[in-house]
């Protein structure tokens, strides 16, 4: 009886969270899936049922495949770079004095919690072709100037650099937490056996923080596939659609072309792609991860 009472109490306490999850996550996903079978411009009161036409259109849309390829390229540039920089800085901070850790954490985490719109405006100034900081730093080296956001060859790379700067600090914090959870006796025993610092990092620390690496890989992949704000503020998908990513394309069809049914089809496809990538990462990489 007491156990049943405890379970009921737990469910009652979780009810607000379940209600919020249903209202703002589950119901919108179901409605989006339902809407993908309709044609609706948001001006007519009743959508028109068209069956699988939106999906047929999507699978034969060359523009969608180009955007999908561009999004994969963007994620490939940003995710590994953010994680590698996060690991390097976390290893350096792990050797530092404990008194400075709070200050260092604040510095590295600040870009992550700063408004994406504000960060985008600052980076637009950094990338300004005439008065920007980036060209000013490269000029003494005899490099440039470049039209960073205004050139099809450099626009996507420019957005990726900014994304790495913004998300690397998040990886630093998570990696640092994982490193500090490692039993210090393991490192002491390895040093007694003659292991160098490099061997300790490769053979002890990196394998032990593998669960955190897998978690960050999944989270970073999801985040980069949902990139929207910085593109919308800095380039609006241009020049010549060179920075149009999947969510930007979804926004275009939904709120500029008013093709809500087709936009819902793109949204469902993005959901399936992210889900498939997450499962693939968990199956392929998760097998090599050992938990303490």
UniProtKB/TrEMBL annotation:
Q: Which Gene3D superfamilies match?
A: MetI-like
* Lineage top rank: taxon: Bacteria
Q: Read off the PROSITE patterns from this record.
A: ABC_TM1
Note the InterPro entries from the entry: ABC_transporter_permease, MetI-like, MetI-like_sf
Principal place of residence: membrane
Q: Does the keyword Transmembrane apply?
A: yes
For membrane topology, the record states: Multi-pass membrane protein
Q: Which UniProt keywords apply?
A: Cell membrane, Membrane, Transmembrane, Transmembrane helix, Transport
The UniProt entry, under PANTHER family, shows: ABC TRANSPORTER PERMEASE PROTEIN, INNER MEMBRANE ABC TRANSPORTER PERMEASE PROTEIN YCJO
Q: Which family does it belong to?
A: Belongs to the binding-protein-dependent transport system permease family.
Q: What is this protein called?
A: Carbohydrate ABC transporter permease
Q: Which organism is it from?
A: Paenibacillus aestuarii
The uppermost taxa in this organism's lineage are: Bacteria, Bacillati, Bacillota, Bacilli, Bacillales
């Amino acid at each position: 009886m007491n156990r049943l009472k405890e379970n009921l109490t737990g469910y009652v306490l979780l009810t607000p969270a379940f209600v919020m999850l249903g209202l703002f996550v589950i119901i919108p996903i179901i409605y989006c899936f339902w809407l993908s079978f309709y044609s609706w411009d948001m001006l007519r009161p009743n959508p028109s049922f068209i069956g699988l036409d939106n999906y047929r259109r999507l699978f034969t849309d060359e523009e969608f495949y180009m955007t999908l390829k561009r999004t994969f390229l963007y994620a490939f540039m940003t995710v590994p770079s953010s994680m590698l920089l996060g690991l390097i800085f976390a290893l350096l901070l792990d050797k530092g004095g404990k008194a400075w850790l709070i200050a260092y954490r604040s510095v590295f985490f600040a870009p992550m919690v700063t408004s994406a719109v504000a960060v985008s405006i600052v980076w637009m100034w950094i990338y300004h072709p005439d008065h920007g900081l980036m060209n000013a730093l490269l000029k003494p080296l005899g490099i440039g100037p470049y039209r960073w956001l205004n050139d099809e060859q450099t626009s996507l790379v420019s957005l990726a650099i900014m994304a790495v700067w913004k998300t690397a600090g998040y990886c630093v914090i998570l990696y640092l937490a994982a490193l500090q959870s490692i039993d210090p006796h393991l490192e002491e025993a390895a040093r007694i056996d003659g292991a160098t610092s490099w061997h300790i990092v490769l053979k002890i620390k990196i394998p032990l923080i593998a669960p955190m690496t897998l978690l960050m890989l999944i989270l970073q992949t999801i985040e980069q596939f949902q990139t929207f704000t910085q593109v919308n503020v800095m380039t609006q998908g241009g020049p010549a659609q060179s920075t149009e990513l999947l969510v930007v394309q979804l926004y275009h069809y939904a709120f500029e072309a008013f093709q809500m049914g087709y936009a819902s089809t793109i949204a469902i496809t993005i959901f399936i792609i992210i889900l498939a990538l997450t499962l693939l990462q968990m199956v392929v990489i998760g097998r090599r991860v050992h938990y303490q």
